[in-house]
Amino acid sequence: MTDDAELLRRYVRDRSEPAFAELVQRQAGLVYSAALRQVGGDTLLAQDVSQTVFIDLARKAAQLTDRPEITSWLYTSTRFVALNAVRANRRRQTREQEAHLMQEIERPALTEADWEKVRPLLDAALCDLPEQDRSAVLMRYFEDQPFAAMGAKLGIGESSARMRAERAIDKLRSGLALKGISSTAAALGLVLSTHAVAAPPAGLAATLAGGALVKSAAVGAGTGVFLKAYKLYAMNKVSTGVAAAVTVTAAGVASYEVDAAASSTAFFIYAVCFGVGIVFALLSVFLGHLGHDGHADVGHDHAPQGHAEAGFGTNDMPGFEPVGPTTIATFVTAFGGLGMMFNQSPSLHRLSGVLAAAGALLIAAFVAWGFATVFRWTQSSSEGRIAELSGAAATVITPIPVGGVGEIAYVQAGTRYSAPARTEDATALPNGASVKITRVIGTQFYVTAA
Q1: How many CA atoms lie within 13 A of 32 on its CB side?
Q2: 91 contacts 98 by C-beta, under 8 angstroms
Q3: CA dihedral of residues 56, 60, 65, 68 (deg, nearest 10)
Q4: pTM score, two decimals?
Q5: Over 90: is that where the pLDDT of 407 sits?
Q6: Distances from the Cα of 208 to the Cα of 28, 55, 203, 340, angstroms
Q7: pLDDT at 113
Q8: d(Cα 210, Cα 218) in Å, to the nearest integer?
Q9: If you average pLDDT over each of 100-109, 221-230, 306-315, 379-388, which comes out highest?
C-alpha cells in the first residue's frame, strides 16, 4: 500500500487529486477526532477545523514532501487551528476543566471510564512532547501501526521503534500525572488505542478533500494567470493583443468564481491582483531600460548613449502601441484596487467582479489615451531627428554579416546612440569600419562603406 508521504509527493508532482483524496480519506479520522476533542464536542466546529487543516495541507504540500510521515504535522496543525477556533468562539475554558478534573480524579490506575476526564487534557499533553516522541505516540496508538512499519518510516529498526514508542508513552503518562491523572503506561496506551481516533461522519472525507483542492487552487489562480500572461508578452510568444485578452478574460472568470464562493476569498484574490499589477508595472519600467540582449544601454566608450527612436507600427514609422505592459499593468492594478473597494460594500460585493473589470478598463483606456497624446506631441520632432541622420557618419560596433544585421554607433546633438543596421548592397562590414547612414526605415538603419 502506498504510504502517506508518497501520496503527498504524487499530488505535488502530478497534481493528482485522487492521491490527495486518498490521503485525506486515511487521515480524516485522526484530524476530525483531534478537532472534536479540542472544540468541546461541537461536531460542526470540528468539521470546520478539519477543513482548514486539509486546506493548509494542500497549500503547503510542496514544503512537506521531504518528511517521512505527515501525521505529526497534521496533528500539530489541527491543534493550532482548533485552539484558534475555540478562542474565536469563546467556548474554551481549559483552566476550569483542569481544576475540576484534578479534584475528582483520585484513582491510581486509568480505566476506560476515565476517558472523558483524559480527553480535555490529552491534546495539550501531546503537544508538550518533543516532536520525535509525539510522532511515535501518534503512529503507534492513534494509527495502530506495527513497530516494523514505524521503524521503516523513521529509518530505525523494529526494536528501536518499540523502545521509542514505550519511552514516548511513558513521557505522556508523566505529563498527564502532573495534571492529576495517575495511570500506567500500558493502561494509557490501551485507552488511546480504543478511544483516541473516532470514525468521522459519513461523507466528511470527500467533502474535506474537495474543499481543500478547490480553495488551494483558487489562492494561486490570480497570480499564476497574470504572471504567465506577462511572460508570454515579454518572450514575444504571443501578440500584445492576445496577452491583453488572456489577462482580461482570466480576471473576469476569476472574479466571477471567487465572488460566488466567498467574499473573504474574493477580497484576497483582489489583493493579489493589486500586488501583481504593481509588480507588473515595475517590471515594465525595468525591462524598458534594458536592451534586446538584457543589458543596460551603456556605451562602448563609456559616453552617454541611447538607442534610436524605437517603437513602430504597421507603417514602419514610430508609433504608440495602445495595449502594452503599461496599460496591462494599469488594468490589473485597477481591477484589484476597485475589487477590494466594491467587495467591502454590502450592496455591491456580489457585483464586485463586473464593476471592477469595467472600471479597470476605463482607467486603462484613459492611460493609453494619455500616452498616445503625449507621443503624438513628440513624434514630429522625433521623425525630424531621424530624417536628419541621412548622410551622417557612423562606426560599426557589431560586425555586419553578408545580408544580415549588425550594429552601428553614431553621434547626434552631442549624444552617442546605437542602432541595428544592414548594408545597402548586402555586403559584410567588420567591427570598427567607418560607414555613412543612407536611410532609416522604422528602427532599421541602412549604411554604405565610407
Answers
A1: 21
A2: no
A3: -40
A4: 0.32
A5: yes
A6: 8, 8, 9, 28
A7: 52
A8: 12
A9: 379-388
- Across the strands, what pairs with 412? 415
Average pLDDT over residues 192-218: 73
Can you tell me the distance from the alpha carbon of 153 to that of 157, in angstroms, rounded to the nearest whole number?
A: 10
CA 251/CA 309 separation, integer angstroms: 34
Predicted confidence at residue 387, as pLDDT, reads 65
C-alpha count within 13 angstroms, C-beta hemisphere, residue 227: 9
The cell for 40 is 468541546
Lookup result for grid cell 543612407: 438
Residue 107 grid coordinates: 484513582
Indicate the helix (H) or strand (E) that contains 226. Answer: helix 204-234
What 3-state class would DSSP assign to 179?
coil
Q: For the chain, how many residues are written?
A: 450
Q: Which residue has the cell 507621443?
A: 375
130 alpha carbon, distance to own chain's centre: 31
Q: DSSP code of 429?
A: B
Cell numbers representing residue 70 in the block: 505527515
70-105 pLDDT, tens digit per residue, is 899 999 999 999 998 888 876 555 555 655 555 444
Name all domains of the chain by residue range, CATH numbers in brackets: 4-204 (no CATH), 217-387 (no CATH), 393-449 (2.40.50.140)
CA distances, 260 to each of 128, 194, 264 (Å) = 42, 43, 11
Is residue 311 exposed (0-12), middle (13-18) or buried (19+ Cβ within 10 Å)? middle
User: Rounded to the nearest 5 degrees, what angle is found at the Cα of 69, between the Cα atoms of 66 and 74?
Assistant: 105
R_g over Cα of the chain? 34
Give 242: exposed, middle or buried? Use CB within 10 Å, 0-12, 13-18, 19+. middle
Residue appearing with cell numbers 473573504: 264
